[in-house]
Amino acid sequence: MNLSEIKAVTKNKKAKRRGRGTGSGLGKTSGRGHKGAGQRKGKKLPYIGFSGGNLPFLRQMPKRGFNAVRPKSYQIVKLADIQKKAKEDIELTPKVMVDLNLIKDEKKPVKILANIDSPFNLKINVKTGKISKKAKEIIESKGGSWECSKQ
């Protein structure tokens, strides 16, 4: 016996024909019952969370906090990654970051974070949208600079 020879067991079950007389078992009301919305044509199933006419659970919960309609998401670049990828002192723009594989899209906003364990030893001039306070201090202590570019 091979796995390719195994076939699933299926039953040839015919669809029940509704509304074909009382002898079929699904005559007269065609399995819809008597009266009410379920018996009428165009009946829609209740939506997810429907509680039989009671106030749905999600509407009972209080609204909390704030969710922005179009939240701004930044591409995060760590100083540790910059030190690994950039071997010499450079001017770091979004175009250069794409070439160094630090970010994927130069059109999306970038934020530099000071996530580094070893001492940072590059003199870089950064042109990005955002930078953390600690990252700015580290870059400026090595003689580099940060310039805000509109993204």
Short description:
This protein is of the alpha/beta class and 151 residues long. The protein has four helices and six strands.
Write the layout of secondary structure elements.
Blueprint lengths: L56 H4 L14 E4 H7 L5 E2 L1 H6 L10 E4 L11 E4 L1 E2 L1 H9 L3 E4 L3
Descriptive overview:
This protein is an alpha/beta fold and 151 residues long. It has a domain at 88-148: Ribosomal Protein L15, Chain: K, domain 2, CATH 3.100.10. 17% of the residues lie in helices and 13% in strands. It is built from 4 helices and 6 strands. The strands form 2 sheets. A 3-stranded parallel sheet has the order 1-3-5. The two termini are 64 Å apart. The model has no long low-confidence stretch (mean pLDDT 89).
CATH fold assignment of the domain at 88-148: Ribosomal Protein L15, Chain: K, domain 2
Q: Average the pLDDT over all residues and give the rounded result.
A: 89
Rg (C-alpha, Å): 33 Å
Could you say what the CATH architecture of the domain at 88-148 is? Ribosomal Protein L15, Chain: K, domain 2
Overall shape: elongated
Helix content: 10-25%
Q: Tell me the quaternary state.
A: single chain
**Main sheet specs:** 3 strands, parallel
CATH hierarchy, class of the domain at 88-148: Alpha Beta
Put simply, the count of helices is 4
